[in-house]
Amino acid sequence: MAELDTSTICLFDVDGTLTAPRQRITDEMEEFLQKLTTKCRVALVGGSDLKKINEQMSASGEHVIQRYEFVFSENGLVAHKNGELIHKESIVQYFGEEKLQKFINFALKSMSEIELPCKRGTFVEFRSGLINVCPVGRSCSQAEREQFAAFDKEHHVREKLVEKFKKQFPDLGLQFIIGGQISIDVYPDGWDKRYSLKHLENEGIKTFYFFGDKTNPGGNDHEIFADPRTIGHTVTSPDDTRRQLEEIFFKN
Length: 252
What we know:
Alpha-D-mannose 1-phosphate binds at residues 22, 127, 138, 145, 183, 185. It catalyses: alpha-D-mannose 1-phosphate = D-mannose 6-phosphate. The structure is a single chain. The chain is built from nine helices and eleven strands. With 252 residues, the chain is an alpha/beta fold. The chain has a seven-stranded mixed sheet with strand order 5-4-3-2-1-10-11. It is 34% helix and 22% strand.
């Protein structure tokens, strides 16, 4: 077996890339990723908070930060290396309460005017490094999530909200990025998934692969996918991710 190449790293989006949307990683995919860690270094780069990433990525029962060298939650605003917290950023400290409340109030008012097949709870979820806006409500069931995703694909609910936010807050320095099936991530300019790369600058890494499913402009994987420091790969499912990795690392 070839030695571990510490100068190469694979960075992975989670939802839709390593797992089905909001589902737990399969035992087969978990086993494959552990095999990959013998070939190169591995990092998870999710927009979700650490609790959600752990729920999806802990097939073995061991906490996700113990399973992978780097876990970058909230786009890397919360960063762990070898199980230890190495960085945590706060959107409240960055913007201040007054500006954040103006946006949150407008977002809630805008979502209250939208008619959907169903609405549940938690329409705005506050995280350390970003605000997650969800028209259907994050407490929706899996069936309701998929129902909204189909409705959104036809009626462009999230796209219209993003345009409304951009028009209302042109000078606030916020990015409004559609992520996953049901929500919009809101964070300061530059706090996208590229933020995770700054934690790797002094790690002796020469080759950065990134794998994600939302790599088109407006998707939450686009910026890191298109960054000149990374070799970006668009995937359509966890199976497609595995197929592409096998081509790169296990072909011979």
